[in-house]
Design goal:
The protein folds into 2 domains: 13-123; 161-201. 90% of the residues lie in helices and 0% in strands. It has helices at residues 2-12, 16-32, 37-121, 126-167, 175-201. It holds the Pfam family THOC7.
Length: 202
């Protein structure tokens, strides 16, 4: 048991290679100097055991080295995959930012369009407005004409009556009354002209 532990420590220690070589050299010297056949056989078996341990250690080291190489290749592949994934994620993030900016611009345009549409709804169409203004102008002209006709008739009648009274010199007895009527007609004419001027200014 002690021999197995000792050999295990020799193999697994930091300076195991040198110690194994020294152990083989010593075993070989003892085997050469063995006094009996049994002692030589024991030394021979000891050397074979040491050689087997060395071969096992070398094989183990080769397996570990091969495993480390494969793990390294695997890690390099994983590293490249991660780099590619990061690059793809960055591209998607950049595209997402562009889409967000476009969506914000579209939303802003929609809001401005809705606000403009609400403003337009409060104002009538230009064609309809022109049509309504034309109709109002015609109606105003018609009403003005209706208002002006009675005053023109009244003024014309007043003027004719005034001429009749002024030219009627034969009725000397009625002249004071005619003068009174003429005064009333003049005042009526003045009032009619003033009212007509006010109506036209509206």
């Amino acid at each position: 048991m002690r021999t197995v532990r000792r050999q295990h420590l020799l193999i697994d220690s930091d300076a195991g290679d040198d110690r194994r070589i020294n152990l083989l050299v010593k075993s070989f010297i003892k085997w050469c100097n063995a006094g009996s056949q049994k002692e030589g056989y024991n030394q021979y078996q000891h050397m074979l055991s040491t050689l087997f341990q060395c071969e096992f250690s070398v094989g183990k080291t080769l397996v570990v080295c091969d495993m480390n190489l494969r793990e390294r290749e695997n890690y390099e592949k994983i590293y490249k995959d991660i780099e590619n994934s990061i690059a793809g994620a960055n591209e998607k993030i950049a595209e997402g930012k562009k889409l967000i900016l476009q969506a914000k611009q579209i939303r802003k345009n929609h809001q401005e369009y809705d606000a403009l549409a609400k403003v337009i709804q409060h104002h009538p169409h230009r064609h309809e407005t022109s049509k309504e203004l034309g109709a109002l102008g015609k109606e105003f002209q018609h009403l003005s004409h209706i208002k002006e006709n009675p005053f023109h008739v009244l003024l014309s009648t007043n003027h004719k009556l005034q001429q009749t009274l002024e030219n009627d010199e034969k009725l000397s007895v009625m002249k004071p009354k005619a003068n009174a009527i003429l005064t009333i007609m003049n005042r009526t004419k003045y009032l009619c002209l003033s009212f007509l001027s006010h109506v036209k200014s509206l």
